[in-house]
Design a protein that fits this description.
heterodimer, A: alpha+beta, 4-stranded antiparallel β-sheet, B: alpha+beta, 9-stranded mixed β-sheet
Chain lengths: 369, 1352
């Protein structure tokens, strides 16, 4: 609306047209006869009739229930083993280790937990560590990183983002990698041994590569200095994160898995959405078709216990799991599908009954006026 | 955004100073108004006038220029609460401790919104600049240093003398100095100012009018001292000091900007007010900003949402406090508190603001913009509607405001003007009854066929016939040709007894200027039947009777007035016979007939009944022969009465009464007040749509009732039509009470069940009335106590019995009924009636009635009108509609919608309004839903992320969700959706009801939407939560990382809301398809782009979601999750909607269903439609004709005001040309000259103006100006000097009562017009002098003027 109702042009009113020189050819102001302007665009006008809604419910039900059953069965076929090694209980082997709250105890505390698998784990087995009550999704935590630095930007290496505070500098040297996420890198070491029925401990080979997203490993995370393999020199002048025992360039001996592109580091840096989460730790590759990857029997989990969680009532777990086409064990999805499918089907039936009993089937003839 | 528009009003005091700066050096008039107490202007003295710093004539309606645009516009926009709120959020986001979102999530939408609004403002302003320039650069002739120079309007200064020529716009408010016409008269058209198209006369002071030529004017150095600029169009007060003399100035001397000079060669004026000080500009006040009820509801809801937002913020802040204390404090080894935070409370405080930021999307910034866009779209559809385009006037409908569209779907009361709105204000001579023989009745065929009958061709035998006149009954023409005396006499009455003027531009091309269209129609009818009224002088009427020119001497005009309801003329024909011709309402005329007319009277009466039944306006005609003695005797008495100082009116009336006796009936005429096309049908349909129509008209009761019948508002099926006509408070109250009692009676008799309630009400009624008899002061107090509770039931009862009654109330009764203590009573009664007609109401009363209904009924009102007198009502009502292309454009300028035919109203309301309302409601429901679904996910997530205000989604998603991903489909729905096709909404007017009852969007619907939104958000959060917390990718990587979760939820959200809009959309055009699919496509495209390595490599910090889209969406689990969430969200909605549709279908659903099934039976609707058609056609009238025609008989065809007779006899309003013609004609009429000579001895021929012959009458200067009604031709006994003095005396005294330029057409104003006549009459005396002067100064008319003087 205009501020003022006065419009100088309107002062002319309709006289201007009449007195104008070319008034003989008065242009018709009749609006165009287009479907758009006359609001007659061809249109599909759906309506919720019994003929469309009821079948929709049945169809949803009939699709969802089989999917749900499939998912449920698949999920049930997946083998999963989980062991809590936090060491809350006095009886727990890791109790002693868990008592030390500090990051930097000079002697690593080791503990070993024995467990047994009732069923053999076929195909590849994935080994996870799980943390509970750990708020990787806290806003301040999530943003406390510098992606430029992690991407190998040399400027950011020495000038980490302000987001990294208070883990931006240490002893007047920039921290690489900076930020709270990197600082709290999970640093327990987990080793798995198979105890033969005859008592021999066979270490199970754990593959530590291929656990991170491809894009993370190859695009997002890069060591500074390009292909220069001398990481030590590149990280010269930076400081290791406060809680770390060793600098970033000593995370691994494999140059393809060292520095920022260390996969354990990358996995950690991909923050979890929920306070209880698991992260892929190692992969146990299937050896051959003949023997299961993890045969049933007794195992020992050797833990180098570095990561204190008791201070905030956190828990640490080790999980072994096989995998299917749809990923790991996930009973929720199957159950949810079956439930929703059934409810839809049931709803369809109820609606059908209601429609037949009370429905307004002859509603075409009783338009009141 | 709505808001910037209304800023000027809301922030008036703040914005204005800024605007003043832009307005130029002179500053604003408003600033000065305080200072300027009087204005002094010296003619031709620019230096002197410079001192006062008066505003120049340059007008600036634009607000910005190129430099000021950005700051001023931004300043204005940020005065809008919503914009400021988002600015505030933006600032919050810049605080690192609070910032939960990047700054751009707010700034992008904000900038978008601001720039859209800015572009719109800029375009508006550009056009204003353009029109300003056009006006400012108009040329005018300014007298500078004695030479006329062309100057642009903007360079005209106060104190300049400018010359205006015919048909030019007046450039500024001028004091008229002189004119080319005699007596310094000039004619103006004031349509732009007040909408009245009739010409008005302005006159300069006699002293200045003598300054004919530029040289004299250049010497003119008078000083005007006058009132400061104001907006009163009808008033001016000032004094001219010149040559040591004082001359009073009033409005009669002023030419106001915006007027057009007409019929005047040229004139000179002194600029008094220029540019922004002119009355036109002072009147163009800021338009009152109208808001729709949806707007108000929306604002309330937005406030509620804010409250809700704060609540959630508080809950989450408390959560933060608890979490930080219980968990966060312990977790510090991994996540230390930020430095300023030293305890959980500070953290909670910060968290509150953080949550305010991320939850702000519940009140999306795009809401207002989207609403505006939708309304704009709807406005365009109105503008584009071909079915609301009038071919004849070449005017399309126009939505002048774009903010009210959806309210068109909620109208409950329509207030309509009559003349020009319901009727065309065209009268056609339709039928007549002459000497007991009815003519014009074409053999009873349905109306559709009559049109095919060829109208009579008059031009063959009558070259003077008016081609536009059509009559179908050839028997009448034959009767004329056969020379039946009664028929001849009949037409003689018509061509003699009237006050019309004729103008003959070229030979045979006559134009009649009649006071009322009825009169014009009658005179035209006579013209076509061979009795051509050619010209008149004050004392003669020249008629061409069947080709033979005849001049009658006009002895007296016995003028019309409301009480007399008739007018007569007394003429002497060339043979010397004196006859009185009378026309008037049959009721009064029949009483004054000679007894021998009884038989004829009965027959005519039957005819009249018939005509009245057809809704025609009737007049009876009669004559009476007078002998010379009778005439002389009566003339004497008449002069006595006229001269009387006390009770002059009454005495005159008595004198008139005396002579209008024993008349012989000639017959009756029937005039059709042509309704606009389709009016009865429109009214019928609107009534079916439960819209109540009130007619508010300035017309007389009879006319109004007549129109009420002809447009089927009143029908004979009605139980009763109450007429409230009382003049006192008591009587009005009594009449209203009686009306309600009658209604109660009928209700009781019909419905015994409600006995108890109605009894109660009856008591309340009588109780109330008990006080009514007491004095008014007593009345109000007890009423508050007692009648407040009992009023509730009566209204409901009254409403339940409505449908059979009608109320007609007149203006003076309305004045009482609108008083505070009676308005409730009046309203209850009126609302119980099916039709309400208020007649003789003033413009102010129109507005008051609208205001009353608006205030008490909480209903949406619509006012429709065409004239300036409807402006107040149009402005008051929720929606104002102006009829364009008839009278001026004042009503259109004040209106919100304009079109040229009343019948378009049904389309505007039932089609456009209904759709707008429906679309807006659906839009709002969906909009709130989608934003709650979107935002509330953050709330749930808060419980899992330590209440840290972490967002669930990527920040880009948050930025784009409202402006890209979900905006277009809902906009398309808001603009294009249709539930039923347009023809169905006209077919089933009941479809309109949901809007009136406000069913589609109200607080309940809002909560349902919100609940649905919250439900969706729960599903959208917890389903991914349940699935993803455990799920892993097929390569073993867990899916529960934050980015995967974000992508999954966002995708699910976009899909769910898209499915929801798909469900909501009822009309899938290609555009809808494009937008819905396009939005989904855009979402995925943008998602993959944002997560691509290309963008990441450029801005690694900004696009850290690298690869998430690919990694997430390639997982079947994610898609299963999304499908699950979608089904869980949509299935209940689907089931619910289906049940609603199946068990309790709305009418629209049914209609839609019917449409779908293509059952073309449409029995009920079709019948209704046909029924309507039938009612509209003549068939419906048959009942009425038989039933109650008598009650409507009084619809006589007189619509003009009294006082014109005297104007004619005084000769004041005669243009020179017509006078000349008359004199020319008179030369050939020997008898006329004889008559003249007979009378001449009494007169001083030299001083008597040519037109003034006949008996002497008292000098008009003696008579008080307001009551002059002398109708005898009056020569002046007084000398020119005297009468000039009289004019000067009369002029100032007229100032108050004289309202010719006012916006009102009230009776007061009419009497003002009458007094103008008196002034003119007073001025008349020195016409001769003036003629001589004008003869000297201007070359145009003098020959004729001289001729006229010679003729004497």
């Amino acid at each position: 609306m205009m501020a003022s109702s006065y419009n100088a042009k309107e002062e002319d009113g309709h006289h201007s047209g009449a007195s104008g020189p070319g008034s003989s050819t008065v242009k018709s102001r009749k609006p165009d006869n287009t479907a758009f302007k006359q609001q007659r665009l061809p249109a599909w006008q759906p309506i919720l009739t019994a003929g469309t809604v009821l079948p929709a419910f049945f169809v949803i039900g009939l699709i969802f229930i089989p999917i749900g059953i499939g998912l449920y069965v698949t999920s049930n076929n997946i083998k999963e083993f989980e062991i809590d090694y936090t060491g809350i209980d006095m009886s727990s082997p890791c109790f002693n280790c868990s008592q030390s709250f500090s990051w930097n105890s000079s002697v690593p505390c080791k503990c070993s937990l024995a467990f047994s698998l009732d069923q053999p784990f076929e195909s590849n087995v994935f080994m996870y560590y799980g943390l509970s009550n750990f708020y990787q999704n806290h806003r301040r935590y999530v943003k406390s990183r510098d992606d430029s630095q992690l991407n190998g930007d040399s400027f950011s290496l020495t000038n980490p983002s302000k987001e990294c505070e208070p883990y931006r500098t240490s002893e007047n040297k920039p921290i690489a990698p900076c930020g709270a996420i990197a600082n709290s890198l999970f640093n327990d070491t987990l080793e798995l041994f198979y105890i033969d029925p005859n008592g021999t401990r066979t270490p199970i080979p754990l593959i530590k590569k291929g656990i991170a997203w491809w894009t993370d490993k190859h695009v997002k995370f890069r060591n500074p200095g390009g292909n220069n393999s001398n990481l030590t020199a590149i990280f010269q002048g930076t400081s290791k994160p406060v809680n770390w025992r060793k600098p970033v360039y000593e995370l691994d001996t494999d140059p393809e898995n060292n520095g920022f592109i260390n996969e354990d580091f990358i996995v950690w840096m991909r923050t979890a959405a929920l306070p209880t989460f698991r992260k892929l730790y190692r992969i146990i590759q299937k050896k051959n078709n003949m023997t299961p990857t993890l045969p049933r029997g007794n195992y020992t989990l050797e833990v180098t216990y570095n990561y204190p969680v008791r201070s905030f009532e956190g828990r640490k777990r080790m999980i072994l799991s096989t995998i299917s086409w749809m990923g790991g064990k996930n009973p929720f999805l199957g159950i949810a599908y079956i439930t929703v499918g059934s409810v839809c089907f049931f709803l369809g039936v109820v609606l059908l009954i209601i429609h037949h009993k009370y429905g307004n089937r002859n509603n075409s003839s009783d338009i009141p006026n | 955004m709505t808001i910037p528009k209304e800023i000027p009003e809301k922030w008036f005091p703040i914005v204005l100073p800024l605007k003043r700066k832009t307005r130029g050096l002179k500053g604003s008039p408003k600033l000065k108004r305080g200072a300027e107490e009087e204005r002094k202007v010296k003619a031709n003295d620019r230096e002197y006038n410079e001192k006062f710093q008066y505003a120049s004539n340059c007008i600036m309606t634009s607000k910005y220029n190129i430099i000021t645009f950005l700051p001023v516009n931004l300043f204005e926009q940020f005065q809008e609460v919503a914009n400021t709120y988002f600015l505030f959020l933006l600032i919050l986001q810049l605080i690192p401790q609070i910032s939960s979102l990047s700054w751009f999530t707010t700034i992008v939408p904000l900038v978008l919104v601001l720039s859209i609004t800015a572009v719109k403002d800029a375009t508006d302003d550009y056009f204003r600049h353009k029109s300003d320039n056009q006006v400012n650069n108009r040329q005018s002739q300014v007298l500078i240093n004695g030479v006329l120079q062309k100057e642009k309007w903007m360079n005209v200064r106060v104190g300049d003398i400018i010359k205006l020529e015919n048909n030019q716009f007046v450039a500024a408010d001028l004091l008229l100095l002189s004119s080319s016409e005699p007596h310094g008269l000039c004619y103006i058209e004031t349509a732009e100012l007040d909408g009245e198209t009739n010409m008005k006369v302005r006159q300069s002071l006699s002293v200045t009018s003598e300054l004919g030529d530029p040289n004299n004017l250049a010497q003119f150095n008078g000083e005007v001292v006058c009132e400061p600029p104001n907006n009163k169009l009808d008033r001016f007060c000032g004094t001219l000091y010149w040559r040591d003399c004082k001359y009073g100035l009033n409005n009669q001397n002023m030419l106001l900007r915006g007027c057009v000079l007409r019929n005047t060669e040229s004139c000179y004026g002194l600029v008094i007010f220029a540019g922004p000080d002119t009355k036109l500009m002072q009147n163009s006040g800021r338009t009152k900003f109208k808001r729709t009820s949806i707007d108000r509801l929306m604002n309330t809801l937005v406030l509620w949402i804010f409250g809700f937002l704060v609540c959630m913020g508080v809950i989450l802040a408390v959560g933060t406090a608890v979490w930080e204390r219980e968990v966060g404090a312990l977790f510090q080894s991994y996540l230390p508190w930020d430095p300023p935070v030293d305890n959980f409370l500070v953290s909670a405080f910060l968290s509150f603001w953080s949550y305010v930021i991320i939850l702000n999307t519940v009140v999306p910034i795009s809401l207002y913009v989207s609403v505006e866009v939708i309304r704009l779209g709807h406005s365009y559809f109105i503008n584009w509607d071909r079915r609301m385009f009038c071919n004849r006037s070449n005017t399309p409908a126009e939505a002048r405001t774009t903010t009210l569209n959806e309210e068109l779907g909620q109208v409950e009361y329509i207030f309509s003007d009559k003349t020009g709105t319901l009727t065309q204000n065209i009268m056609t001579f339709n039928k007549c009854s002459i000497n007991g023989h009815a003519y014009g009745e074409v053999i009873d065929t349905p109306r559709g066929q009559t049109k095919k009958v060829e109208p009579l061709d008059f031009s063959a035998w009558n070259p003077l016939a008016d081609r536009d006149f059509s009559f179908y009954d050839h028997t009448l023409l034959e009767a004329v040709k056969l020379g039946e005396p009664a028929v001849h006499e009949f037409f003689r009455v018509l061509c003699l007894c009237h006050t019309a003027m004729s103008e003959e531009k070229s030979e045979g091309e006559l134009v009649y200027k009649a006071q009322s269209p009825d009169e014009g129609a009658l005179v035209t009818a006579a013209r076509n039947f061979g009795f051509v009224f050619r010209s008149r002088t004050p004392s003669t009427v020249t008629v061409q009777e069947l080709g033979r020119p005849v001049t009658y001497t006009l002895l007296a005009i016995l003028d019309f007035n409301n009480i007399r309801k008739r007018m007569s003329v007394i003429v002497r024909n060339p043979e010397g016979r004196i006859r009185l011709y009378c026309k008037g309402a049959d009721t009064v005329l029949f009483e004054r007939l000679h007894p021998c007319n009884q038989d004829l009277m009965n027959i005519t009466s039957d005819h009249l009944n018939e005509y009245a039944g057809d809704g025609l306006r009737t007049l009876a005609l009669a004559y009476r022969d007078l002998s010379e003695e009778q005439w002389e005797e009566w003339a004497e008495r008449y002069r006595g009465a006229d001269r009387a100082e006390d009770c002059r009116e009454d005495r005159l009336a008595a004198a008139y009464e005396e002579i209008e006796q024993d008349m012989m009936l000639l017959g009756a005429t029937a005039i059709e007040d042509k309704l606009q096309e389709g009016v009865p049908e429109t009214i019928a349909i609107l009534t079916l749509a439960n819209i109540k129509i009130w007619v508010l008209t300035g017309d007389k009761q009879e006319t109004a009732v007549n129109i009420g019948y002809s447009c089927k508002m009143l029908t004979d099926d009605m139980t009763e039509v109450f007429i409230v006509n009382g003049h006192t408070v008591q009587s009005v109250r009594e009449e209203l009470r009686r009306a309600r009692e009658r209604m109660m009676e009928s209700a009781r008799s019909r419905d015994g069940g409600k006995e108890v309630e109605s009894q109660g009400w009856g008591e309340a009624c009588s109780f109330g009335n008990g006080f009514g008899t007491g004095d008014a002061a007593n009345w109000t107090q007890p009423k508050e106590k007692s009648s407040a509770p009992p009023t509730a039931p009566p209204t409901s009862i009254l409403e339940s019995i409505s449908g059979e009654f009608a109320l007609v109330i007149s203006g003076h009764s309305l004045a009482h009924a609108l008083e505070a203590d009676m308005e409730r009573e009046f309203l209850d009664t009126a609302c119980a009636c099916k039709a309400v007609i208020c007649c003789r109401v003033t413009p102010l009363q129109k507005a008051l009635v609208v205001e009353l209904v608006k205030r008490h009924k909480k209903a949406v009102t619509l006012a429709i009108g065409d004239g300036a007198n409807d402006v107040s009502m149009i402005k008051t009502a929720h929606i104002g509609v102006g009829i364009s292309g008839q009278e001026g454009i004042q009503a259109v300028l004040a209106s919100d919608y304009s079109f040229s035919q009343f019948r378009f109203l049904q389309r505007l309301l039932l089609v456009h309004g209904r759709w707008s309302y429906l679309r807006m409601c659906r839009f709002l429901c969906y909009f709130f839903y989608k934003n709650f679904a979107f935002t509330m996910v953050h709330f749930w997530f808060g419980f899992f992320c330590g209440f840290s205000a972490q967002t669930v989604y990527d920040q880009y998603f948050i930025t784009l969700y409202n402006i890209v991903y979900t905006s277009l489909p809902v906009l398309a729905m808001g603009i294009f959706d249709q539930d039923v096709p347009e023809q169905r909404s006209l077919e089933y007017p009941k479809l309109y009801e949901p809007g009136q009852l406000n069913l589609l969007f109200n607080k309940r619907e809002f909560f349902i939407c919100i609940a649905q939104g919250i439900y969706t958000s729960v599903v959208l959060f917890f389903v991914p939560y349940g699935v993803l917390s455990q799920a892993t990718q097929s390569n073993g990587t867990p899916l529960a990382d934050y980015q995967t979760f974000a992508v999954t939820t966002a995708t699910a959200l976009v899909i769910v809301v898209s499915v929801q809009i798909a469900l909501d959309t009822g009309y899938w055009t290609a555009i809808n398809h494009f937008f819905v699919w396009g939005s989904l496509g855009a979402y995925f495209t943008i998602l993959f782009t944002m997560h691509s390595s290309v963008l990441f490599n450029i801005f690694p910090k900004q696009f850290h979601f690298l690869g998430s889209a690919h990694n997430t969406l390639s997982q079947p689990v994610v898609w299963l999750t999304i499908a699950l969430a979608t089904v869980i969200c949509i299935a209940p909605v689907l089931a619910f909607r289906f049940l609603k549709l199946d068990l309790k279908p709305q009418l629209s659903d049914t209609v839609r269903y019917t449409q779908l099934v293509r059952q073309k039976k449409r029995k009920p609707g079709g019948r209704a439609g046909r029924g309507l058609g039938g009612a509209g056609s003549s068939g419906g009238g048959a009942l009425g004709r038989l039933g109650r025609g008598g009650s409507r008989r009084s619809g006589y065809a007189f619509a003009h005001q009294e006082g014109f007779g005297e104007l004619i006899t005084s000769g004041k309003n005669m243009r020179l040309s017509s006078l000349a013609l008359a004199t020319f004609a008179s030369r050939h009429s020997a008898s006329w000259i004889d008559t003249l000579r007979k009378k001449k001895h009494a007169q001083n021929a030299q001083n008597t103006p040519p037109a003034a012959t006949g008996d002497s009458s008292p000098a008009p200067s003696i008579a008080p100006p307001l009551s002059t009604s002398s109708s005898l031709t009056g020569p002046q006994d007084t000398t020119p000097e005297e009468s000039r003095q009289a004019s000067l005396d009369a002029a100032p005294s007229n100032g108050l009562g004289d309202v010719p330029l006012s916006l009102m057409k009230s009776p007061e104003a009419e009497s003002g017009g009458c007094s103008l006549g008196a002034v003119q009459e007073a001025l008349f005396g020195w016409r001769g002098v003036g003629a001589r002067i004008s003869g000297a100064s201007s070359p145009g008319p003098p020959p004729i003027a001289e001729e006229s003087s010679n003729a004497v």
